[in-house]
Amino acid sequence: MTRGVLLEFRKMHRLRTLPLLIVLVVAVAALSSASLFSRGAHATLNDSSARPWAALLLSYTMIAAMTSPILTAVLASRQTDIEHSGAGWTLSATAGHSPSRLCWAKLAALALLLLPATGVQSLLVLGAGTLAGITVRVDPAPWALYTALLYLVNVAFCALYIWLAARVENQLISVGVGMLGAFLAVFALLIPSELSRLIPWGYYAVISHAGQNGGEVTYVSPPYGWILGFFVLVGSAFTLATRHLDRAER
């Protein structure tokens, strides 16, 4: 598995995955903090009752829900499409790497890449808040928990898109599902949490640690039990689905 992951990183270099990810991380951070620099925003930056950090986290959650499904779909699709175009499945099989092991190697490589990317993305948003002039003390716990869950949800959907890209050669389908997922993720932010839990992409909203209570923005506690169940379900489904790939004819 270690050799397979290292090989995936070599493929990433050819696919220019890292520059693409850097651009998208900076773009998400910039969009999330854009409202801080608008006219009239300065009046609330130093008002503790306005909870500026919670408002910023809510803005970050909305932008992440809008962009993360597309980001993970593009990364997974590019990482998997190379096997279709270069007969990689057959070559890997002759080297002792079954399609299921190859998919797991791709997931592990993307997970290792997304880990620092998600952390840096959150730090950039926090840095933008400080640069904008927020002097209210930040509570690090909601930010850290949201960042960790955002990373895990991104990895979960990478697994989905890797399987889909491996199953269907037309990568427009995988990316198209990602775009549909972005719409559903944003829509899930506007509906009750009980309904969001029933939509896979709704977990970009379920993991939110900031929400509106009446007319105020405040920190909230997400349903961790449901989130854990979602991760267990995705892991089990990915394991079974990739095993089925080993029996598929190519």
Automatic annotation (TrEMBL):
The protein's superkingdom reads Bacteria
- Answer yes or no on keyword Transmembrane: yes
Read off the Pfam families from this record. Answer: ABC2_membrane_4
Q: Is Transmembrane a UniProt keyword of this protein? A: yes
- What is this protein called in UniProt? ABC transporter
Q: Where are the transmembrane segments?
A: 53-76, 107-131, 143-165, 172-191, 224-242
What keywords are assigned to this protein?
Membrane, Transmembrane, Transmembrane helix
Q: Which residues form the signal peptide?
A: none
